[in-house]
Amino acid sequence: MTRVVEVPAFFDERSFEAFAQSLAAGPLTDRLLFDARGATWSSPVGFVAMLTAAQAVREAGGPTPQFTIPDSADVRRYWVRTGLFRHLAELVEIHGKLPRLKVEEQSDVLLDVTPVRASEDVHAVVGKIQAAASRILHGELGLEAKATMGFAMALSEACQNIVEHAGTGGWVSVHAYSYRKRLKRRVVVIAVSDAGVGFRRSLEATQARRFGDRWGDAAALEAAVIQNVSRFRDPGRGQGIAGIKRYLARWQGKLTIRSGTARIAIVPAWDDDSPLLEQLAPFPGAQVQIVIPAQQDEPQDDAT
Question: I need a surface site. Which of 173, 203, 223, 229 has the fewest CB within 10 A?
């Protein structure tokens, strides 16, 4: 019997929880069908989450999942352009006819969905995106030109977290678009995800005793994100999240990290997200989202 995992119609960090719940409804070794027929849009979070789920099934030794593509031709074209299906095809059996893109189209994709497995991948990701990031951050978001250096650092540290902590490969995607619902500004969104051990297992050897009965996914995220704790004992190592927080504080950005059954957020004034969520559906590895907004309001009619 095949178990259906529903891909949300509008796949962002909030609807991610419905996707995680659907995936967690049974063991990863079930025969699974990822149903994306009703999909109308996905943020970078959605793209890396779909790949992480498929990767987790592969690593759990389950049957190769099936994946039904979106009914919407526009959505199919956009998802092809992001590189999603190129990587999904290595992990799932895709059902449906995908379009071939003849000409490179202008889009909000700053970085295609890209695998991260080693430090060399991180350097390649940062190098590939720097020119586009400079254009977007300075030209569209109104940030100072030197913000590009901090952006490259934040992107690098988020990806490096996979290499140093996950114990397996992961994925990164970066887009720029208008945040119509809450901010009404252009934003750049970085999403990084892996199917690895997660924050709790990564920090357990050095932190579990300190937290005692409180130890769990939420406590591990609190240690890493609020207290800047690292599993590395060497001074200066493992301070990537602290650097990301300093960068985002300067530009009123948002950081969310989800791992296991908990999610923590550094919430700027323009957002109403919860700073900590616990007892969520379990999801493999860790997921990081960084949102960097424009520094002035854009006309409301321009929000898309």
Answer: 229
Q: 288: closest CA among 171, 203, 122?
A: 171
Q: Which CATH number fits domain 1-99: 3.40.50.1860, 3.40.50.720, 3.30.750.24, 3.30.870.10?
A: 3.30.750.24
Q: What is d(CA 100, CA 113) in angstroms, rounded to the nearest whole number?
A: 17
Cβ neighbours, 10 Å, residue 278: 15
Of 229, 236, 179, nearest to 206 by C-alpha is: 229
DSSP 261: T
Whole-angstrom Cα distance, residue 50 to residue 67?
10
Task: Judge whether 154 and 248 are in contact, CB under 8 Å.
Answer: yes
Tokens of 166: 């996950």
Are 169 and 162 in contact by the 8 Å Cβ rule? The answer is yes
pLDDT on residue 211 = 93
DSSP 246: H
pLDDT tens-digit readout, 210-225: 999 999 999 999 999 9
pLDDT in tens, 246-271: 999 999 999 999 999 999 999 999 99
